[in-house]
Design goal:
Elements (H helix, E strand, L loop, with lengths): L7 H6 L36 H19 L10 E7 L8 H11 L19 E7 L2 E13 L2 E17 L2 E6 L23 H26 L3 H5 L2 E7 L2 E2 L1 H12 L8 E14 L2 E12 L9 E15 L2 E7 L9
Parallel strand pairs: 1-5, 6-11
Antiparallel strand pairs: 2-3, 3-4, 4-5, 6-7, 8-9, 9-10, 10-11
């Protein structure tokens, strides 16, 4: 069988992988969905159990009157004299708490005190109460660059209290000392453990990238121009052909070649996905390309073998090819 263009075999063998120069060193971006405050947060502080209801109502007053409205002169209504602290920057005892907010920070109360809202900077997300304990989960907005609130992400804070006779006697939260150094980088050859959420995301990304490679080979084998181009970013490229429209035209040209397109099949194996960032990766692989035969008298023929290193990126939750490179140099590999 003759080919319409010498580049056909090379164009049809391509298959996957990703890395955008410089992004590996860039700051990691949040992978999570944003944390959103409850639309009616004060409704979370009620309970059918009378003891839990009393403790939840005291937690509500701490969250609203103290933390939101600064009524620290009335703190003895909701905190015990002992008030044991486990926040490393705060001392235990009601007197110390009041001295800090009233005399050091000089917090002025907000009157009248408005109800809690989903628009609060520390909007309440959920409230859990059991035995003598109440835990409030709340939203925190964190800048990627210190002091620059134009580019932020959200995470979750918690405050936990143990109550005695309707007043908080002990407190926990995730605070650390200011300037606490980051943990040292892992030794060469070691793997940094992932959180369960990160591990689940990695499994999902692995599956999506293997699916991307399958869809690529399938669209190529069936000469489907639209399906093929849709697997690339808007300016994605393959062997000098750049942009979805041009990639679509490339496959359409092969499909409409004189005598019709060849019956081909592509196989990509030994995938190694090299993640270069939360939304970028390189896919390393081997490929084989066959012209399919019609039976024992006309067996299938291997026409190309090689390895590829493709750059991919996740956009709007979808992994797409940035570049496909089926002729990598040693540096690329």
């Amino acid at each position: 069988m003759k080919f319409a263009k010498p580049a056909l075999a090379a164009a049809l063998v391509a298959t996957t992988s990703v890395a955008l120069p410089g992004l590996a060193q860039a700051q990691m971006r949040a992978l999570s969905d944003p944390v959103v405050g409850h639309p009616d947060p004060e409704s979370l502080f009620v309970d059918d159990d009378p003891v839990l209801h009393r403790n939840k109502q005291a937690a509500l007053r701490i969250q609203r009157e103290l933390l939101k409205c600064g009524e620290w002169a009335r703190a003895d209504e909701w905190l015990t004299e002992a008030y044991i602290q486990h926040n490393p920057v705060a001392a235990s005892g009601l007197a110390g708490v009041q001295d800090f907010f009233l005399n050091v920070a000089r917090v002025q109360p907000t009157r009248p005190c408005p109800a809690l809202s989903a628009d609060d900077a520390n909007a309440v997300v959920a409230v859990v109460a059991e035995d003598d304990y109440v835990v409030i989960f709340s939203r925190r907005e964190i800048p990627y660059v210190q002091g620059d609130m134009s580019d932020t992400y959200t995470t979750t804070h918690f405050d936990a209290w143990r109550f005695v006779d309707g007043r908080a006697d002990e407190h926990w939260d995730p605070a650390t000392l200011p300037g606490t150094p980051a943990p040292p980088p892992p030794a060469p050859g070691t793997v940094t453990p992932m959180t369960p959420e990160q591990a689940a995301q990695r499994v999902a990304d692995d599956a999506a990238l293997h699916e991307l490679m399958w869809k690529y080979d399938r669209a190529l084998d069936r000469f489907q121009p639209d399906a093929y181009a849709a697997l690339f970013t808007e300016n994605g490229s393959f062997l000098g052909t750049t942009g979805r429209d041009n990639l679509r035209d490339m496959i359409a040209g092969y499909a409409n070649a004189e005598g019709g397109p060849p019956r081909m099949q592509h196989a990509s194996t030994n995938h190694w996905i090299e993640y270069t960032g939360p939304n970028t990766a390189k896919i390393h692989y081997y490929f084989q390309t066959y012209i399919l035969g019609d039976g024992p008298e006309s067996p299938s023929t291997l026409i190309a073998v090689g390895n590829g290193v493709d750059d991919v990126v996740k956009q709007d939750g979808r992994w797409l090819f940035v570049t496909r490179n089926v002729t990598p140099t040693v540096e690329d590999e």
